[in-house]
Amino acid sequence: MAVLRTATLVGAVLLAGLSAGLFYSYACSVMPGLAQVGDRAFVDTMQRINTAILNGWFMLSFLGALVLIVAAGLLQWRGGNRTVLLWIAAAAVLYLVMLVVTGAVNVPLNDKLAAAGSPDSLTDPAAVRAAFEDVWVRWNLVRTLASAAAFGCLTWALALSGRTP
Q1: How many other C-beta atoms lie within 10 A of the C-beta of residue 40?
Q2: pLDDT score for 80
Q3: 8, 20, 33, 95: which could join 72 in a potential S-S bond, CB 3.0 to 4.6 Å?
Q4: Which of helix, strand or coil describes residue 124?
Q5: How does pLDDT run across 88-116, given as a tens digit for each residue?
Q6: Rounded to 5 degrees, what are φ and ψ at 160?
Q7: Tell me: the pLDDT tens digits for 22-63?
Q8: Which residues have C-beta within 8 Å of that of residue 71, sequence separation ≥ 6?
Q9: Would you give the DSSP letter of residue 93?
C-alpha cells in the first residue's frame, strides 16, 4: 500500500506541476508577448490557442491532477500519515480554487471571444480585446498562484511522506 500511496502522490505532483507551469507560462510569456501585437492579431491568436488547448493531453493533466490529488488523499486517509494528508487536503482546496476560477472566469471569457467571430470580420477588434484581455490576465494570475501553491503543497506532502516509515 505504501508504494501505491507514493506513486499516486508522485503522479499528483507531476500533473499539478504541469498545470501550474502552463498557467505560469501564460502569465510570464504568452500574454506579455501578445500584449505587443495589434488587436486583430491578438483576437486571432487567442481564439486559435483556446481551440488548440482543448485536447486530450491538456485534459489529462488539468483534470487528472485533481483525480490523483483526491486519490492520494484517500490513500493517506486509509493508513498513511495525517500530516501528509493535511498538505494533500490543502493542495486539493487550492487546485479547486484554480478550477473554479477557470470555469467561472477564464472559460466564459474564452467562449465570448470565440463568439465574437472571425477576426477578419470584426468591425471593432479593439473593443473585443478590451472586453477580454485585462480580466483574463488578472484571473489567470489568480489561477497561476493557486495552482503553484497546490503544487508546492503536494511537493511538501511528498517530501514528508518520504520521511515517515
Answers
A1: 15
A2: 79
A3: 8
A4: coil
A5: 999 999 999 999 999 999 999 999 999 99
A6: -65, -40
A7: 999 999 999 999 999 999 999 999 999 999 999 999 999 999
A8: 8, 12
A9: H
Provide the pLDDT for residue 164.
62
58, 114 in Cβ contact below 8 A? no
Question: How far is residue 134's CA from residue 83's CA, in Å, rounded to a whole number?
Answer: 39
Q: Which parts of 35-132 fold into alpha helices (H)?
A: 39-52, 56-77, 82-101, 107-115, 125-130
- Residue 63 has a CB neighbour count (10 Å cut-off) of 13
Q: How far apart are CA 104 and CA 51, in angstroms?
A: 18
pLDDT given for residue 165 in this prediction: 56
CA distances to 29, 78, 140 from 74, rounded to whole Å, are: 37, 6, 29
Q: Are 25 and 88 in contact (CB under 8 A)?
A: no
